[in-house]
User: Fold these one by one.
Assistant:
Number 1:
Amino acid sequence: MEPTDLLEAALPPLPADLQIAPLKQLRGRIRRRRRVRFALLTAVALTVGVGIGVPLAGRKSETVAWQYARVDRSGMILTLIAVGTCLEATSKADARSVVITLRLARHQCAAVTVRLASGLGNRIVIDGSDGRARLVFRDSELPSGGGYVEAADAAAPGTAAVTLTRPGGPNLRVTAQTRVRGGVPLGSIPLGRRTGTLYAGPELRWEVGDLVYELSVDRAVSLPQFQALVAALSWRQ
Amino acid sequence: MDDFEAYVAAAWPRLLRSAWLLTGNWHSAEDLLQTVLSKVYGKWPRLRDQAPDAYIRAALANTYLTWGRRRWRGEVPTERLPEFLVKADEPSEIALRETVAAALARLPRRQRAVLVLRFHADLTEAATAQALGLSIGTVKSYTARALSTLRADPALRGALVEEVC
């Protein structure tokens, strides 16, 4: 008997419950893996200064300025995007605001998340290191579906950014910023409860409070292709 | 994701068998394969036009060896659970299968990984060496030692031909 045949001989029959690929479980694993990679890559990118130079606050208190916050779809979990990989957070909240202070930690590393006692709602989020309100990117503004998953991204100062990717592309980039950009509107398109405005590029923008969210693609597409792409996504703000 | 899922749906049974040859039980094999597929997904655009099976089998062997180096290895059953029989096999088939499986289980992990890549994934010595980060000489040595151990097994004596590797 050849070694090849010997290995075949060792194989028991495939159990009936394992004959079908568990695609749903696999999708879950891929999503979890993407999230972890995103958090780690963001931390590394920010640490090496790809994006920004938000200075560390004074050595005395060891507080760390953070760049922006992301609030998940439930409105309960804030993720702070900041310089440095070893951080810990303290927070206090009232009806108007949530104040979050980051400090360099000796033992805790990776992404910093804060679970709120109640949903963030329309409250502002303040960086305790300097007492100033920071930009809050709401995950509820992100489209879903289309086979997209989140990938690592590094935002420029004053901007929050999320990249969505899928095999074969195109990749989508959703940014949020307070600065209003120019351009000639080409038309509007419904996005769930919101209405987006199309611009040359093509780009799609919609406003939420003081923020302007913008969706763009990483390759050249025609306006009809872009509109079809946007229409195929699920928008549930 | 669609073509990745179509590939996984089609390749799942054969890849799961490869994973079983490494782990020796279906539960760990399924966990190993899912772990590898979730890693491979990110590389799928580059991989789909090449030979995904060979790449994934190499990744299975590498991840299996990585798991072996971990201090924590997940849940380790204390008793051997019987494999579920799908069809009523001949007693001689069952006996041979259990004998071979037991002999494989006694091989060191690296030798087992080399055997699976060489004789199940059908990789060359050079490709096996590259996949596992070993020299070709080490692959030859592991192959020879593993086959020698199997030949020396009293239950398998005579089952393996001598002129291999």
Number 2:
Amino acid sequence: MYTRIITLCYRKIIDINVVKPWDKLVFDDSYAEFKIQAQQISYGTPYTSYAELLRNVPAAKNLSALVTPAISSYVQQLNETVPEILNNLGRRFLIFRQFQFELINSDINDKNKHQIAVNFFTEPLVWYDTISNYLLIGHLSQTTEDIYTHLFQLQPYLSIHSIKTGQS
Amino acid sequence: MERKNFLRSLIIGAASTPVLLNACKKESASAAESGSGSVTNAGSAASSNACAVAPTETEGPFPTKSPASYVRSDITDGRSGYKISIKITINSNCTPLAGALVDIWHCDAEGNYSEYGGSGMQSTNYTAVHFLRGRQTTDATGVVTFTSIFPGWYSGRATHIHVHVHNAAGSTLKVTQIAFPEGLGTAVALVNGYNKGLNGYTYNKSDNVFSDDTAGVEIATVTGSLTAGFELLKTINV
């Protein structure tokens, strides 16, 4: 059988307007850490925004990586389940083991400008079919005669991150 | 994965119904009776079976406040090298400063830092470590202690440890670096650059950060041995 194995990426955007507890904790703690790390990079320069630092101070490109440890324990609290993305039965169903934290905007002096994303990368999935607007996928390496599947719709901020085609 | 994870992913969804039901139940049970301000019903444990195993309930979806994974005293993270204990005292106006946050970071035996390099934009497995970086809060005597490995060196710099002191609100009090004593019989000479040797090493007097420190204010006291490990003591005035 001709198969397509895909991984998905969900880019969860978090900014000052979030209301859910997890989102707020990630917002607050990533901002506190950004402030700490960015001050040390902006030291001796007039720049306070992430964009300015990125343009003018080479070390600023590491800021996303430096802020990541502030939020990694929150990612662990998700128990490897991608938040918010539901299958057609209304259940969360995507498993991730990799994530990437990303600073979008921020400013040492203005928390309102802080905007970040957490990118979740799913485990490989087999894409069996496309039914109307829905993708029919199953987890990899199922050995039973009946293969268990999920039906779900692509939506904003959810995309196919990688694809591998082959025979199985 | 596969079937097990698939089943688990079903459970995640299915579990949400009982949560709601229980939540309603608990709310009605805790509705206060009107009356005097003292407890009239202390509650009673089910007496039928004192040894009954607690029922397994779904874990609530409530996130808890967690410190950054920088907060730790042992920052080794599996990096190999000679053990070093780093004890830093933070003073403000010559008196110990309690409650200050102290971040330190330094390179590994080969001269590499965590978080830097070409893979910065790769997705990370969240068990990924942030080696040789840590944060501690000063105690009443202004002291923080870290356990790490003796830093290696890289081209253009003398051996050093970065220090960033900030207050509890995250405002910078001081960004500085700690230099090491050098010359015959010092720890730098004993470690001898690990596998690299000291050929091409930048000494403090030529270092672009430490060269202006002719009084040696930035140089720590380092004692110990290769076998027993080293101890670094440094007082920083912010």
